[in-house]
Amino acid sequence: MTKRMPRAQRRAQLIDIATQKFGEKGFHPTSMENIASAAGITKPVLYQHFASKEDMYVAVIASIGEYLREQIASYSDFGGTTEDRVRAGVTMYFNLMATHRQTMQMFFGKEYISDDVHTEIRRIQDEGALAIAEVFTATRNVERRTALTLGRIFAGSIQSSAHQLADSGPDELHPDALQAAIDETVQLLTYGVMSFQGAPEFDDE
C-alpha cells in the first residue's frame, strides 16, 4: 500500500510541478488537468490544496518570491561600497535569469489573469523589490517609500537587461557578453543610488 504524502509535502510538490507547467506554457494554456496528471493525482485531490487555478498560480508566484527574498537576504550583511552591493545583487539576478529563465520570466511576466491576481502578484513583487532596494541603499539615507520605488526600478532594469541578453542569440550568452551586460547595469544603478545622501555611518564615495 502506497503511503500517503503529508499535506504540506504534497502542496510543495504541486507548487513545484505547477511552476514547471506554467513556466513552459503560461497560465491560460495550462489546465488543472495537466498539473494533476503530471503529479499523478486526480483533479479532486488537486482542488483539496488549491481552490482554483488562479489560487495555484498565486501560490507559485509567492513561492518564487520567497526564494528570491532568501537569495537577497544572503546579501543583507554584505559589506563593501554601494557599487559592491549593487554588483552583488545584479550578478545574482543575472545568474538567476540564466539558470531559471522560465521561472524568472513568469515571476516578472505581464500575462493578465484577473485584477485580483494582478494585485496579489504586484504585492509579492514589491516585497522582493523592497528587499533588493534595502540591500542596494544600505549606505544611503533613503525612506522606505522611496526605497520601494527604487526597488521597482532596479528590478525592471535588471529584468530588461537580462531578457535582452537572453533573447539576443547564442553569441550574446558568451561569458564576456554577460559580464559586459552586468557591468553596464551596475554602472547605471550605482549612479542612481549614489545620487542620494550617504548615511552618516558610511563613507563609500
UniProtKB/TrEMBL annotation:
PROSITE patterns associated with the record: HTH_TETR_1, HTH_TETR_2
Keyword annotations of the record: DNA-binding, Transcription, Transcription regulation
HTH tetR-type domain sequence ranges: 8-68
Keyword flag DNA-binding: yes
Location of the DNA-binding region in this protein: 31-50
Pfam families: TetR_N (PF00440)
GO MF entries: DNA-binding transcription factor activity; transcription cis-regulatory region binding
Keyword DNA-binding: yes
Gene3D superfamilies in alphabetical order: Tetracycline Repressor, domain 2
Protein name as it appears in the record: AcrR family transcriptional regulator
